Amino acid sequence: MPLRTRLALPVACYAVLLVSALQTLVVPVVADIQHDLGVSTSAASWVVTANLLAAAVLTPMLGRLGDLHGRRPVMLGVLTVVLLGSVLAATTESLPLLLAARVAQAASFGLFPLAIGVLREELPPARLTGAMALVSGMLSVGAGFGLAVTGLLMRNGGDYHQLFWLATALVAVGLAGVWLLPRRAGAATGGLDWAGAILLGGGLVLLLLPLEEGNGWGWGSAKVIGSLIAAVVVLTVFVLVERRITHPLVSTRMLTHRPIVVANLAGLFLGFAMFAVFLAVSALVQTPHEVAGYGFGASVLAASLVYLLPGTASGVITAPLGGRLVSRFGAKATLVIAAVLAGLGFAMLAVLHNATWQVILGALVVNSAVTFGYAALPTLLIANVTPAETGIANSVNSIARSIGMSLGTAFVVTMMTRNPIPGPIPLPAESQFTTVFVIGASLAALAAATVAFLLPHPRRPNPTVSEAETDDVLGAAGLDVPITPTRA
Predict the structure, then answer these.
(1) d(Cα 93, Cα 383) in Å, to the nearest integer?
(2) What are the residue boundaries of the structural domains of the chain, listed by start?
(3) Separation of first and last alpha carbons in the chain
(4) CATH 1.20.1250.20 fits 251-488, yes or no
(5) What does pTM read for this prediction?
(6) pLDDT tens digits for range 376-428
(7) Bridge partners of 427?
């Protein structure tokens, strides 16, 4: 096997690790960014939200570019954009420029489908399933790595700009690795849906902006109402445009077919749950108890390594376990289990968050539920669409998950900035955190009921463990899943 082909697996693993590491690096330091730049909590939160919104638009577009022009050149272009964004973030003291940098870093989300595509091109079928399972596991490893590194670099009140310099170095290594991959021509024809991308991005910004700024603007203000109306108009135009495009960013069938709608609503909830628990737990444990009467006054190091890392690191175990649950009980049942488990985790956090072990366990349960849900979604979609639609169905579900993450971020920020405790430091009341967790538990119950009662029984037999894991990775990457006799 040529050297360039042998490099496909390690380079793909590194690229996917980079995706999740860049996603979690900034989660524990949002408060530090706020204080350093002298901006409001809601303004600082856009460092997370802008990244997720851009990912929702860029990921399917970059996957399409890889099909059209070959995955190696697109990966090189993505990493170059991410490198420039990381350098900008490491050198700027301006919030608008930092947001621009985070939008550029969002291009990294496209590396996952591109890396899986490289494996399908380079590896023999006998090695493909194991290789894709390994690469998929890098998402959890990268998330844990990002949290661990953040904690270590910020352990003595360090400068958050160090995180972006580290990201710059990591991306440079990725560029060198991708440069060594074999060159393959693109196999698809057609073009990109630029109109759809612009309309989707604009509509999502108009939707989330008033949700994050509503406390400051006033919920009945002209700004909030006008933005929400404009969001409805733009997103409606987006749907109308998509119906008339040969290669749309989002197939309109994916917006009307009931099984797909239910699966996308479940993805929306799972994305919401993931970032709601990330941000709420990080803010809760860093709140000084002597000032607020709750919290632990934890450092960024403790918030990252003690409270958040167990939940993300557990993905190394829970991800393959999710594939086995799908094989044993089916995707629908696994998704119901995931929603119920998330509800139990949120309910525990709502009632018990006065001891370290309680917060760690609650966050661990919610993150495990999210992992189980993510394992079920690709197989669930595959069971309800034609083989030709699997790629677009999973791309749409990826958009739904990213929107859910953005909504989770906006919701937590809204709750953290409402009715602050009087004093020199504007801290949220403990009841605000309780509300976040109660809403999370309520949405989990709604998600479980929606999947259980509205989702039809799958038309196709349950896959084997190997097929479930392969479907999981290919589907999550937005790639078509090959037909086998058991799926036919």
Answers:
(1) 49
(2) 1-191, 194-244, 251-488
(3) 33
(4) yes
(5) 0.80
(6) 887 777 777 665 555 667 677 778 888 888 888 889 988 888 777 877 677 88
(7) 421
